[in-house]
Amino acid sequence: MAAHWTTKDIPDQTGRVAIVTGANAGLGLEITKGLAGAGATVIMACRNLDKAEAAAGLVRAVVPNASLDVRKLDLASLASVATFAEEFAAGATRLDILGNNAGLMALDQSKTEDGFETQFGVNHLGHFALTAHLVPILRATEGSRVVSMSSMGHRPGRMHFDDLMFDHHRYQRWGAYFQSKLSNLLFSAALQKRFATSGAPTIAVTAHPGASHTDLGAEGTGMLNRMLEPFGKLFSQSAAIGALPFLRAATEPGVKGGWYYGPRYLVRGHAVAETPSRKARNSADAELLWNVSESLTDLHPFA
After folding, report:
1. pTM for the whole thing?
2. Can the keyword Oxidoreductase be found in this entry's annotation (predicted)?
């Protein structure tokens, strides 16, 4: 494995197909550049098509022959997720990389179209549903990977299984965000277990960008959000560097299911394999989250 891994270490991706959610900005845009630059066809799955088309132009400016396909996906709507997945599967013969990248951070309290707390609904349940719909084509593609974007914020995270949507407790925007990022790791662990036990040629892995300056942003209006913004810009690394753990997890030969990639020094540095928190390795919580997610979305991909 390369000590200082960069996009130059990405193997040839010609003939491979990737979906990247939130591909129009920040980490998603850099992930798209990296995959397209290595020859992959990238489906840019985005909520705002105008922004996505503009982002595709930015990719083509650095990768003139990029194979890109811009499609609408709103992770805050299970109906939109189903439509996207059905349309993709209808015209596709393979899916090598499902990049569950899109996310929201530190929002004021709100609900998705389906009544879920927005950060949990978008960051976790939307991607759970997308993955569930695409399990058949993933399992039909040798060497395929599901790569989920978590955060170092999973470490202070806590699963509120008695009130995942903060319906009965005081809403905390950062607590909700941390819960959603812990959910990404627990989901990936439960997914990997199911791929392995079913004999699928697919693995589930996870990454985090460290402290990267991206358009994800702290979108809430609270004082803490405003106080943290200048510090984030001071200590963060670029989105291009922050995308490397995800790209390494998605493309490096020899990656094993369940692995987790991030910056060497937690908040910044070169992409390396690391160990998530003990909470993220709680198999009972992973199973409980999986079962709850199936119930909330009415999707049972391994039934």
Report:
1. 0.92
2. yes
